[in-house]
Fold this sequence. Notes:
By secondary structure, chain A is of the alpha/beta class. Chain A has helices at residues 24-29, 34-42, 47-52, 54-59, 92-101, 112-123, 134-139, 143-147, 173-197, 226-233, 251-263, 285-290, 333-347, 365-368, 376-391, 399-406, 425-433; strands at 4-15, 89-90, 108-110, 153-156, 159-161, 206-209, 240-243, 269-274, 299-309, 316-324, 357-359, 439-446, 458-465. Chain A has a six-stranded mixed beta sheet with strand order 2-1-9-8-6-7, with helices on both faces. Chain A is globular, with a radius of gyration of 21 Å. Chain B is built from five helices and two strands; from the N terminus they run αβαβααα.
Amino acid sequence: MPDVVISAATQVLAHVPGLARHGSKPRRELPKNAEQAEKFAAALRTFEDAAAYPPHQAWIGNIHPRDLPARPYSANAGAPQRTGRFGEIMPEEEFFGLLAAVDDFELFALSPEAAKAAAAALAVHPLAKALNLERIEKAGGDIEAVAAEPNALRLTDGAVMRCAQADDESLSAHVLIDNLAAKATATLALLHLLERSGIDPTSVEYVIGCGEEAIGDRYQRGGGNMGKTVAEAAGLTDASGADVKNFCAAFVPALVVASSLVSAGVFKRVVVVSGGSLAKLGMKFQGHLAKELPIMEDVLGGTACLIEADDGTSPKVRLDVVGRHKVSAGGSAAEVMKALAVEPLSRHGIAMTEIDDYATELHNPEITEPQGSGNVPERNYRTIAALSAAKGDIARADIASFVTERGMPGYAPTQGHLASALCYLPHALDRLTTGDARKVMLLAKGSLFLGRMCQLSDGMSVLLERNERR
Amino acid sequence: MDLQTQEAILRASQTHDKADLLVLLGSPDPESAEIAAETVIVGDPSYAGALAGAQLGLLTYHVLEDEVHADVPDDVWEAQIGVMADVLEADALSATVAGFRNQA
């Protein structure tokens, strides 16, 4: 079986304070309470604040999560930096231009002023040559008329989303803006990937989407294909694609499928992409407002990574060290982690202390704690450490040091799949090439029960390893 | 505590004798354990769910409390719960929930 490597990975954020109230939770709660809606609007962050926010700087690669300052992060933030080694943070005004540029059906409408501002901002973007900027101007017009169309959704003062078909809830304006935002963020990440890797775009043969959006119509809700959609938007003319769905856990199965396709010789180059989850914006806003914090779920993430045959330098995907959560495994946190962290390593006689970094659900605790969800990564790391102690790889007294040395603080926005191991991938590639790590384990978990079709959880893990030929 | 869980607990309290019910919490930190205990004992503090204003006074334990451990077979405890005793702050969780229980 030929070896497979991940040769590049990028990630981006779009700061979208104007869209935050269209997240599922604010959309349901704010109309019920005018005072709360006012507080919500007043608690939104400026672009400068969002760009300076240290977890976002960790996301785009300007700092490693272990080097995050003390909390509260915003009190210890440095200067805002829009770009990083992994990608960028895009302001909303410009992101609206990107939405228009990737909108194939003229659904997204802007006021003339917003269209002009978006076109001007995006025209000087280093990746603009890959985008259809004419569409932005075309999106500008009388948005009061568009807003008056049946079932149109007013997004902000300067932006409206059309409904594509009035009697099809899968094509409602809310669903379509979710999907278009996911497409735009994934496309931006993929454009950065092409730029940074320097590969010929026509050399990518397949693109796998692993985001959480549900593209489709009433006959096949969620049946859609973001992989190929994004391939087209980024100009990958020779690629096809499809999606791998698995709630928050989808990235690791997508990576394993992509790597298997390369290993089997089906395709030479495969890209895995995912876009942001608009529905999750402002998800925990009530906790933030109650504690007089800003609305921190105001960004959409996007990611892309490139998988190809061994190039002699990039980190390898150990397809023989894949952990999976079996149907019979049991759903407790410990059982899931046993399946993902203990079993695959034990099978190969690899001690749990041989793993330099574990990448698990890396939700930013500053976002989750005010709403009572606790510190998710710390809990995961303590579970892994406790299992390592139970297995005899470490003493129970060393649980805390295991967590510090092999874990890291959470820094991802609560965007499900993006927080679930995926956000660490570019850091992992750094650590396994220019850094001093030899083994990094990616572990992703998902909650299948949310869809009410089974009571199960799921998860998958895979080991990444330094390329010894390097 | 999410709205569906609150509804389920309210339903159970209406269809069973309250003295026959026991609420077992699995909350991961003392803050959320406190909110959950408060919700099922004196009512939902956020006034958003079915238990708003419902003073059910249900007997409530956290799964990591010693009294629960004593009632669970050792093999089940080890397989399903034991690791979490090393992961979560069991003492703080127990103290929080016991505090609310004794106050009720």
